[in-house]
Amino acid sequence: MKSKLFTKRIAAAILSAVAVLGLAAPTHAASKVVMNLGWATPLDSDYGVLAKKFKQLAEQYSNGSIEVKLRCCAQIATEDTAFKALQLGTVDGYFITQNNVSPHWPLMDVFVLPYIFQNKEHLQRVTQGPVGEEIRQTIFKDTGVHLLTFGAPSYRDMFNSKKPINKMEDMSGLKLRVPKNQVMISTFRAFGAEPVPLAWSDTPTALQTRTIDGGDNGTTVIKDMKFYEFAQHLIILEHFTSVSPVFVSDRFMKKLSDEQRAVVERAAKEASEHQTDIVTKRIDAVRTWLTSEGGMTATQPNRAAFIAAAKTVQAEFAAKGGDKFTELLSKIQAAAE
């Protein structure tokens, strides 16, 4: 009897061990994680600078347990569709310009307000400080999407195919492409232009066919997308100081171990610092290239009238944005001091 009982106990122990191994097997199989990271512009654009560095660091720091596949040029989504895809978990990660986040998380419009940041240093104090961390936590709570890094600060420069802009009155009659963002639509209208809300994916064709006269984009995007071939007038106003955050889905983050998650966050931070260093130095060089090899003519109008118009837009959206919007706006303004 004792022999049979002993045999049964041994068998039970073996079965238990097999069961534990069986439960552990999926975890081991999932230890190698693939991340598809997408964006809308070319591989060698400013987004690509961050993405390539992030890939290098994430794979290095994880000893190969994380593989990052770079999906430029709207291969896996567009900026207009990516946020919803992140919420659904059908996209792992994507760069989304701040104005294209607002339809999904309206508080981001605080970042879109014209002349809300005094300079790029002010913007970085916000994104790298307590306000930035509060935004990360709040956007995840509200949408279920993780803001991995804000990326490098940059300016949006205007361009058009019709005429140089030397004063705000010159904006009259210009049909300028605007993202589908109410702050930007109101800003262009306040500047005297005729805003044409248009998806990013439709913009190059609209510019080539003269459906629009121009628009505004990050300085380097104008070069990367070769918009200088269709619009010879460059207008430097620095009216929008922008970021293009990298967002990742909660579904992707849940695939990571604690160690892998720490690696992803560290790689994103360091890649963003790398991008900031490169992009900051590049903006002046790209403007010079656009007005030499690109054949554009640049003007830098006096900004007083534009800033005055921008303040009316700020007041308009502060009045209807609600308490959370006003509170966030106040924190951003305080960071300028």
Structural features, described:
50% of the residues lie in helices and 15% in strands. The longest helix is centred in the last third of the chain and has 34 residues, at 258-291. Helix 2 (46-61) runs antiparallel to helix 12 and helix 8 runs antiparallel to helix 13. The chain has 2 domains: 33-105 and 116-152 and 243-282, D-Maltodextrin-Binding Protein, domain 2 (3-Layer(aba) Sandwich), CATH 3.40.190; 155-241 and 285-334, Bacterial extracellular solute-binding protein, family 7 (D-Maltodextrin-Binding Protein, domain 2, 3-Layer(aba) Sandwich). The chain has 14 helices and 12 strands. The radius of gyration is 24 Å and the shape is globular. It is an alpha/beta fold and 337 residues long. Mean pLDDT is 92; it is low at 1-8 and 10-30.
